[in-house]
Amino acid sequence: MWFSGLEKRFPHLVLYEAIFYSGVAVFLLLIDHLRRPTEPELIVPSNRTLTPQLGQRISSVAALVLSLIIPMVTMGYVWPWTGPAASATLAPYLVGIVVQFAFEQYARYKKSPSWPVIPVIFQVYRLHQLNRAAQLVTALSFTVRGAETTSHNLAINSSLGTLLNVLQCLGVICIWSLSSFLMRFFSSTTVTAQ
Question: What transmembrane ranges does the database entry give (predicted)?
Answer without folding.
Answer: 12-31, 58-79, 85-103, 163-186
